[in-house]
Protein 1
Amino acid sequence: MDNNQKDSFLSYEANAWFERNFEVISNYNPDDDRVVDLFKKYNFDKQSILEIGSSAGYRLNALKNLIPNTNVYGIEPSQKAIEYGENNYKEVNFTHGTADNLSMYEDASFDVVIVGFVFYVIDRNILFKVISEVDRVLKNNGVIIIIDFFSEASLKNSYHHIDEFQAYSYKQNYDDIFIASKLYYLLDKSTYSHESKELDASNDYSDKYSITLLKKDINSSYK
């Protein structure tokens, strides 16, 4: 592509996304958060959580309240989101950056990695670098939670929030990449309408997203 999508998101779209969604963020209710609900249902008691694309850290703050002994970390491209988070969520440890460079975190340093609506805007030439970094920082027997668009096929669309240059979104089921490695297995996956936020079994594949829970077990497939 003519423009580096990563640099463009860092310089423009990350802050613009935060501003567009500020009302939703400021009215966040953890009781409505299905990621928080997964922690409750699976009775997770994890020591360390990283959220990639953490925005202002509202979900991490909710998880810290749910599991007081956990340490929560967020990496986020929007400096405005981080500034808001640092003022409002003192327990969250923020880093300004993107998912292709998690060098500030050691190998196998997290029990949980949450990746929410990130994979679909990543440049295709660094997608596997991002996946490698996620895998590197996740402990064996840790879990990944992926929130992203559901699609019946791999789709490339223009990213309609940006007019200044050509940017793209890429819809596909990113959990498939992890599962195909035989190093991860599926624990849970639910699919929702992006508009209504309710469980959705309709044929309208253009308006769905999924929340997927994967467990890393590097020995499970090798008998």
Protein 2
Amino acid sequence: MANTSVVSRNRLIFGLCLPLAILLGYLLAEPLASSSLAIVTMVVSVLSVPLILRWYHPLLIFSWNATIYLGLLPGRPYLWMLLAFVSFLLAVPGRAANPDRKFLHVPAMTWSLGCFMAVVVTTACLTGGFGLQTLGSDRIGGRGYFYMLAAVTGYFALTSQPIPLQRARLYIALFFLSGLTAMVGQLIYFTPAFYFLYYWFPPEMALGQAMADYSFVDNAVRISGMSVGALAVNAFLLARYGLTGVFDLARPWRLALLLSAGFASTYGGFRSAVLFQVLLLLVLFTVEGLWRTRYLLIAIVTALVVGGGLVMFVDRMPLAVQRSVSFLPIKVDPWVKMTAQSSTEWRLEMWRTLLPEVPNYLFKGKGYALNPQELSMVADLADRGTAADAAVAAAYAGDYHNGPLSVLIPFGVCGAATFLWFLAAGGWVLCQNHRYGDPALRTVNSFLLACYVTRIIFFFFIFGALYNDLYYFTGLAGLSVSLNGGVSRPCPELEPTMDGSES
């Protein structure tokens, strides 16, 4: 005799799945329709709930550097933002249900982030609200507040549970290599049949290709996605093997891959990409203490070979590559040199305009909320005006291209003080884990510290934007805390007993 409970369950499954399959098949007949994409996304999201409940922490780590966004949601948030909130909301009841599942509490990080967000919220309330038009506001600019809230929430979600030591390498690969998803946008551009995937992969990554294809002049083809993906590969190599492992002459493929990825990153045409990698290597070289070893000679020889190759062949390389290294005293295409210099002058003009206004925002920051009509008028004037007018428009929109200004003008002295407190707390955490962490994690702890220090230097002296860069700092600190199970402490010294043994 058949088991009626089993039969009923099977019938229930078929009764739900078959109509759903018919509906999805009908919708996929017009896959680019917004209604079809919305329903398919909703169905996939519901089916993903069991996976999220089980794997929300590794999914968050994977999404942190992934270039994936949710184009069907208002504001088009990135995937890591959604998973940050979801992971935090899942971790809190998990902690309540199981007292053994405690958050990895680091008081210095908690207090500094809490005070910083208090300044941010207070500033928003005093300067016209959060400016989220998706929630009915008549002002714009709330994206910056949302980005910062997601970055802070993501830190607590990352530290909601420790990463097992035996899975550390897997999680490191998930965290860094997910940056390769930036290249998907480039690949989609070559296959128009898959343009609907731009609902999930930002089309901005292929903007440089599109501008070059539809330009009437011989423009530099800037492949942004390749630059981001190459940086992700180099970050993984250095986190996995360190400079000591990369310079291991018994495994020359590591150094070859590092140099190849470094060269590939120049196809984005970003001078900042080259500067960041050079600065990161110098900081990591110092953190690992290689300047006192034979690796110093290997590094010098490698730098001379790469530098010599640039001097000899750079003027025959693609224009995007030449633009990436145009800050060096080497011969590049005159047009490339001119565009790079104009970009620099544009930034300098904006900073000269902004500096006299900084004292006006020291005690009460400007915030991010903007009047859309005023912004539209400023943008129209910039389109019909000079480069100086364009710089003024960018400054009005909060696009300062400068780290200190992006903190001081929106949030004043209080915001700057609490932000510096947070940076110092994060640096202390990473330094402690580097010095006293598990020896098996020494390589990755060294890289995380070097990357954190490099990000700080880059933010203050080269290029920075607070709401865009905050998640870099919280992500590196959160990953370090999760990998090391908190903050590592020095082992207490053993005291000798009366009989000469140690206790």
Protein 3
Amino acid sequence: MSGHSKWSKVKHSKGALDAKRSALFTKLGQAIIIAAREGGGDLDSNFKLRLVVERAKKANLPKDNIERAIKRGTGEIKGKKIEEITYEAFGPGGTAFIVEVLTDNKNRIATSLRIIFNKHGGSLAGKNSVLWMFNRLGVIRINSDLIEKNKEEWQLKIIESGAEDFKEDGRELVIYTSLNNLQKLKEVVEKDGLETESVGIEWIAKELISIDESKRQKVATIFEELENDPDVQDYYTNIR
């Protein structure tokens, strides 16, 4: 559960995709709209858009949906204005949450998040109450089996390419880098013929805390309810 990211833990599970496909497609469409609005609709020049579209393709979002979302972002197709909001919250046992939202209704999502956290022993927090506990980093995940034969040599290579840290999490190698080095490091990884599991920007907890089983169950319920809310793009915690 360390540094929990919805995308890293959920998006590659076929069962989860099948069960939550409608909400997932809504989230991906909104992310594409925002990325295209911020940097234009050209995938070659808009790295953020390219990442989101790659993520959408892995989730089997139809091509027509992707193209329509890009056009909404660039203004070629009109639609409701979508806003990007970051919420800070405390969960059971003083756990910290960052919840990233894309929504066309601020009142709706604020109410939804307040209800989710309040009923499970938490609360929404004030601005800058939680963010200071996290670092904003570029994160690349690959299957660690792909580098098993020359692991030390490859790890040295990514450090020389600007990786700030890396860790093995089960069969996954998680690589951390600064935001402005993410594109370069992604290109280094892919140049070696390695397929990435995910590439993105995440909030990584500076220090992790442990909680007992009863609180862990409440946190798991919060995860599930955040997962089911189509306005919630991603969420992160400082739980070990």
Protein 4
Amino acid sequence: MAISEAQPRHQLLKILGLTFGVAVAVGDMLGSGILRAPSSIAATVPSIGIIMGLWVFGAVHVAITANVFAEMGTALPQSGGAYIYAQRAFGDIGGLIVGWSSWLAFIAGIAAAAISFANFLPLIWPWANDHTVGVALAMLVGLFGANILGLREGRLLQEATSLIKAAMLLLFCVAAVLFVPPSNPVPLPAMAVPLIGWAALVSAYQLVRGAYAGWDTPLFFSEEIVNPGRDIPRAIFIGIAITAVLYIGVNGTLLFALGVKGVASTPLPFTIVVQDFGGIASLLFALTAMITVASCANANIMGGPRIIFSMARDGLLPDFFQSVNRGGSPSGAMLLTALFSAGVTLSGTFNLVFGLIGTMNALGGIVIIVGLFVLRRREPDLPRPYRAFLYPALPVVALVLEAATLVLYSAADTTGILFAIGLCLACVPFALVARRGRIRLGDIAPR
């Protein structure tokens, strides 16, 4: 049967599996953060033990939160991610708060990846150094163009780029440990942990948590996965495990080869290590860096439109945004995402948006965790192929961690919490207007 016959206008294709789920999780997490964060963290927290501890704790933190999201994702297997769960538990207002903040995170990720791609290209092609914005926009056109063709094209691109960058980072760790002489060892008495203020720890952990952002991306494709009850939890936890191993390995390798001061001395400590391998290694690093950020951008380009699509399907946005083309791509939602991504890239405001992501992610996490308890009580018979491990104790731990994170982020970033409050308040009239529109049309969504 032809795709055009099997593909209704508002129906996504159900063709994805575990491989894609792992690839999109790893692809979204492994971005420019791991290339740049080690330097900033080493400069902020000059202690090898604390640095490595933060990366390990970051993996544990997201895994505990993922335990909650995995239940929600398998109980409500619809594309749109956290927006779907907040909408089901708290209605339009809760859904809008989480949906808009998640979409903004995708937009910021796309713009930042595009600029990072343009910054790495001059390492291979010096001409590009004077055309950063043009290169960034060209990358966006290429990736959005590939994805607008269809879900199969986006899937192939994501799986290939995620595999390549994960393999190259692993190769870097092995080669550096085997062939690069370690930094001068520090005598044990001198390795006492320096006094580090809470603000420095919070700042460093924001970078760590930001690097792990994207672990939940498989959830945004739930209704497009053939067996969501089985593959969504596997994809999330395998993706977190692979990324954590790479993050801990890369940071350990850099600290082994350069020491804390060496890692902190340059925005890209990788370049110092690969110099020992000659020009070919430097070229490979540049290519790996470009593939890394392009893969991250592709994951965001695929995930973001699913939120807009789901909002439109629930009557919160115009019907145009739930249109699906013959290839299975939500074309209307993808067009809106492309326009906003290009605008943020041109304006350079993605740094401002990125500064708000940690706060908004923590707020969204709290909403979803509370939503788990709400739905367990309100809808006890809802099918749950995956049930949160050690309920209710471990979900409570997740709630405490997210609440503590939000408090610390808010204390360190007043702008972020003010923006969060403003977004929450703005969602109230937006939700009321959307509801009145559905009442007039006689189409009240079941949630």
